[in-house]
Amino acid sequence: PSLPVEVLVNHAATDEEARGVHERLVRVADRFLDVRPAYLGHLPGDPRLARAVAAQRAVVEIYPQAPSSRRLVAIARDLLSGAPSGGTRRAAPRALPPAGHASESVS
């Protein structure tokens, strides 16, 4: 079975800007990959996210109150609950295998 493809736009100033990026990506993906990725949301430009990446640490761990951390937590909650995010309704997620016990390879 195919898995849903969703896009999280990084470093967008507004939701409108992020949706514009998403629409351009959908056009390209539809044309060349026959896939129409759903819009998951966007992360705001956040210097603490860049610092976390440079430190090779999770932004939600070292800067839990950063705008990008709060947005990531909200998106994760939506994904886990099956709630709408970015205007689409998704099915409840499948249970994931324990770490180190991948049942499918991703390529």
Quick rundown:
The chain has 107 residues and is mostly helical. Helix content is 43%, strand content 8%. It has a two-stranded parallel sheet with strand order 1-2.
Could you outline the blueprint of secondary structure elements for this entry?
Elements: E1 6-9, H1 15-33, E2 38-42, H2 47-54, H3 59-62, H4 67-81
Parallel strand pairs: 1-2
Oligomeric status: single chain
β-strand amount: 5-15%
Shape: globular
| End-to-end distance | 14 Å
Give me the count of strands. 2
Largest sheet features: 2 strands, parallel
Count of alpha and pi helical runs = 4
Report helical residue fraction.
Answer: 40-55%
Structural class: mainly alpha
SSE succession: EHEHHH
Mean pLDDT: 82
Strand order of the largest sheet: 1-2
Low-confidence stretches: 87-107
Characteristics:
two-stranded parallel sheet; 2 strands; 107 residues; single chain; globular
